[in-house]
Amino acid sequence: MSVYVLVHGSWHDGAALDDVAAQLRSRGHDVHNPTVAGHGRDVDRDVSHDDCVDSVLAVLEAEHLDDVVLVGHSFGGSVIAQVAARAPQRIRRMVFWAGFVPADGTSVLDSTPPAYQELFPLLAGQSNDNSVMLPFEVWRDCFIGDADHERARETYEMLVPEPLGPTAEKLDLSAFYELTIPRSYVLGDEDCALPPNDPEHGYLVMARRLGAFRFITYHGSHETCFTDPALIAEALERAGRD
Fold first, then answer.
1. Dihedrals φ, ψ of 163, to 5°?
2. Considering Cα of 194, then 195, then 200, then 205, what sign does the dihedral take?
3. pLDDT tens digit string along 7-34?
4. In whole angstroms, what is the distance from residue 119 CA to residue 135 CA?
5. Is the dihedral of CA 204, 185, 148, 13 positive or negative?
6. What is the pLDDT of residues 71-101, one digit of tens each?
7. To the nearest 5 percent, what fractions of the chain are helix, strand and coil?
8. What is residue 212's three-state secondary structure?
9. Does this model's pTM top 0.85?
């Protein structure tokens, strides 16, 4: 039995990973999938990246969690990097599930293609709370291409606006890059939320920043948590084992 803490990505809250958490629990694991600060419905989106990190650290401390397999999906990768740097004694392994691993001194947004770097601030400027809502067309084709149209639309209705602040904030990751905690990278072979094989902004560019890491793949998209949660649970279990 392992202790898993699942940190969701952009446009999600903790409930987005409920089905994956249930699958991991059915395999005998203790699983926590909190909602990161600034995410969810009817919440204050004026948060910093540190606020996001603090909200996950608070769960580790309140639940007295140790020997944790800390999983970060997408944007959550940047969060678990700083959680691990601040509480390394609690973490057994970090698992970056299509997770962002920004270079020290850069932002999550800096690791995205130029089109996103232009689009997201534009969308945030059109909102009343500096947040970004992903267009359905991008969600349907780039994020959840392994769903039929009905499931893509159904899951799109579950999304919440993403605060731009933590995504655009330059991050001090110097302590993270000094860690020796084991790490894994998990990636779907149909994941095109970032352009596949992009030499500057792709997943493997970020994964290589981890140094030595275990690489786990599965057949699916960026959001297979919604289309095949059992498959994601199996991949995370392989990524998290000793």
1. -65, 130
2. positive
3. 999 999 999 999 999 999 999 999 999 9
4. 10
5. negative
6. 999 999 999 999 999 999 999 999 999 999 9
7. 45, 15, 40
8. coil
9. yes
